[in-house]
Design brief:
It is found in: Cell membrane. By secondary structure, this protein is mostly helical. It is built from 23 helices and no strands.
């Protein structure tokens, strides 16, 4: 016979969250940029333990809590496999000359005065075409970070511009999973949701592009032409640079447009990169090989998928830029994701998260407060569960009836879920999206967040529209 479970109090629901925020703040203060390499993981697990102890006092059994943790982690396994596969792709694309070729041409085409705006726009176009902010960041974003090094540009601003463009394209693309999920949860149609989302996303992108132009044009960013030429010469000496090196990139984008699932698409891209390295970069492969012959070359490609590549050019900055990748490079990211999902699973499966959300829902008084509360709740769910999908589904379930009760079109809900859930996920340092972007771009969320203008503007514009009653659609009374 199972014992009756008591509903947690608001104070009990708040305690794990307050403890987590305090520990994460202390982690950043004590360990700085290295806080994501262990200290944050410990903070998440301690907060999960606090939540578990509260649940035990409310009548839950450990077996139930553990089952909730296992189920919560299983939700993230797809994303974790993609994260590992992206590490493999980055490693082989570095060795194959794909990323170096993108950097080479980027140095040739991009002017420092409009580099940030161009980075944002390029990522927006690519992400719109493939529907994936993650793939865009891992391919074009990585190359743009390399170009930023060559042009002596700010890496945090570059990362912010990459994410701004990547997430705009993601939100406007019918190929995006979250763009499909939000209208499904809210009860509206995909393309109607995209058109309605555009009223917020397009102005946010326009303002972001203007800001990046002002930042780029308002500072002394004219790079040394001789330095750029020297970097191009180094790249040309290290790699076989030509347009044909971009074939793996074209294939990956083609698979994404054809709507092949992300995991096999990225795996194919990684394997193709390994083949490209063997065929077109024999000197690079030979430099890493432990012996001669085809078998030694295959060993290099094999290990590159696992551990990435290492370049020794004599230029420390260039070596840092062109070395890395491999599945092993993402293990810390996976560690952080597992710990974050453990905390989120404890909060959800023990009723603590439900209690917090119910308390928030009770504060709704008007359309403005409903939209604002939905956006903030989605953001808060990102903080508590570290997962953008949970940040869409949980608030969507909770507020759907309230939006209908107030006569608001489901598109108002779906747009609010995107603005508070998907868009803010890369801003929460322990969220799986932010962890992924940190692993791919090498820039901490705390560093790029102030410059990710699109991510900051979308929720604010959504709240402003509600306050002005602008583009707030109502249901037909006849329905």
């Amino acid at each position: 016979m199972t014992s009756a479970k008591r509903t947690p109090s608001y104070l009990q629901a708040l305690v794990p969250l307050i403890a987590l925020i305090a520990m994460l703040a202390a982690s950043v203060w004590l360990f700085g940029d290295s806080s994501s390499y262990g200290p944050n993981q410990i903070a998440l697990l301690i907060a999960a333990a606090i939540g578990s102890l509260i649940a035990l006092t409310n009548g839950y059994h450990w077996d139930e809590i553990q089952a909730g943790i296992v189920e919560g982690i299983s939700i993230a396994l797809g994303a974790i496999l993609i994260i590992l596969m992206v590490g493999a792709l980055i490693g082989t694309w570095l060795l194959a000359g794909v990323v170096p070729t993108l950097i080479y041409y980027g140095l040739e085409l991009l002017n420092p005065a409009w580099f940030y705006a161009a980075s944002c726009l390029i990522c927006a176009i690519v992400s719109l075409s493939i529907g994936s902010s993650w793939t865009t960041a891992a391919t074009i974003g990585v190359a743009l970070i390399g170009v930023a090094v060559g042009l002596d540009q700010s890496l945090p601003i570059t990362a912010g511009a990459v994410l701004s463009g990547a997430y705009f394209g993601d939100k406007m693309s019918p190929l995006s999973d979250t763009t499909n999920l939000a209208p499904a949860v809210a009860g509206t149609e995909l393309f109607a949701h995209i058109r309605y989302m555009a009223w917020v996303s397009v102005p946010a992108l326009a303002i972001s592009l203007l800001a990046y132009l002002l930042i780029g044009g308002g500072s002394e960013v004219l790079a040394d032409a001789g330095g750029l030429a020297a970097m191009q010469q180094q790249l040309d000496a290290l790699f076989n640079i030509n347009v044909f090196m971009l074939v793996p990139l074209v294939v990956l984008f083609g698979l994404a447009v054809a709507r092949m699932p992300a995991l096999p698409s990225i795996f194919i891209g990684a394997l193709l990169g390994a083949v490209w390295a063997l065929v077109f970069q024999p000197d690079r492969v030979a430099a890493m090989a432990q012996g001669d012959g085809l078998l030694a070359a295959v060993e290099v490609a094999w290990l590159t998928l696992a551990d990435g590549t290492e370049i020794s050019s004599g230029d420390a900055d260039l070596d840092r830029l062109l070395s890395g990748g491999g599945m092993s490079s993402m293990l810390n990211t996976v560690w952080l994701a597992l710990c974050a999902m453990t905390f989120g699973a404890v909060m959800e499966s023990t009723g603590l998260l439900r209690k917090l959300l119910a308390g928030i829902a009770g504060m709704v008084q008007s359309t403005t407060s409903l939209v604002t509360t939905t956006i903030l709740t989605a953001f808060g769910t990102n903080v508590m569960t570290a997962d953008q999908y949970m940040a869409i589904v949980l608030p969507g379930r909770m507020f759907r009836a309230e939006f209908r009760h107030r006569g608001l079109d489901p598109r108002v809900l779906s747009r609010s879920l995107e603005g508070g859930g998907t868009i803010t996920s890369p801003l929460v340092p322990w969220n799986t999206c932010a962890v992924y972007m940190f692993g791919v771009l090498g820039v901490s969320p705390l560093q790029y967040a102030p410059y990710a203008f699109f991510l900051l503007l979308v929720p604010l514009i959504g709240i402003l529209y509600a306050a002005l009653d602008f583009k707030i659609l109502r249901l037909d009374p006849a329905r």
